[in-house]
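Protein modeling request. Please complete all fields; requests missing the sequence field cannot be processed.
Requester role: graduate student
Desired output: 3D structure, token encoding
Chains: 1
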Amino acid sequence: MNSFPIGILDSGIGGLTNARAIQELLPNEKLIFYGDTTHLPYGDKSKQSIIGYVLKIGEFLRLHQVKMILIACNSASAAAYNDLVLATPPNIPVLNVIDPIVNHLVKMNQYKKIGIIGTKATIDSRVYPNKFKKKSPDTIVKSLATPLLAPMIEEGFFNNNISQTIVNAYLSNKNLKDIDALILACTHYPLIKKEIEHFYKNSIDIIDSTKVVATEVYRVLKEYQLLNTLEDVEPEHEFFVSDYTSSFEKTTSLFFGKKVKLQLAE
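Delivered output (266 residues):
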């Protein structure tokens, strides 16, 4: 089972930022990525709809004999994590992208006021404030839905004047006033980290969770004794989408760091 792949699911292709971080940390591990491009973005979908999508993708990944499933989407993590855990055999660990970063920041105990930007579904779920309240009651969490950012990034509008203007408009919101750190609670947002840093001019820390999540993947695989210990392995990753277009395939290189071949899931 150690040579089985890690399954990664996302509402689109933004989760490839997590896949890239995992590949860099664990180069021997094979990845099977599923982007639900038919239903993106999840941020404006109901909780029940998101649960239905995630459970279906989970079944697809299990049929491909994955040894772990990572929900590489904040909206899906907030809405469907518990349901996917219940639907998955206990020998296949299920991870989300929210708990690792919350646990990491609580352990650091460095910030008093933390800002969070994400999709409407993620922010409306209040999953981040609720988790911080349980683990670190003194931490003040300020949240803001930023629904235009993910579509903007998917269309390739970043690192330019247009994206900087939109980023500035969101980050100027009074909800984010006087924060010490900002969590990028969407897997798309690492691609606009430079614009966000430019707005704050290094006055606060910008928290990109991809490396933290990759480290958690490593920790859990080691705990379950599922690490692929074969040396000099060059795994052939597989990338599936529920709806294929050439534009999706072109955009994958922005998130994964190199061009990948998308397959249409059946």
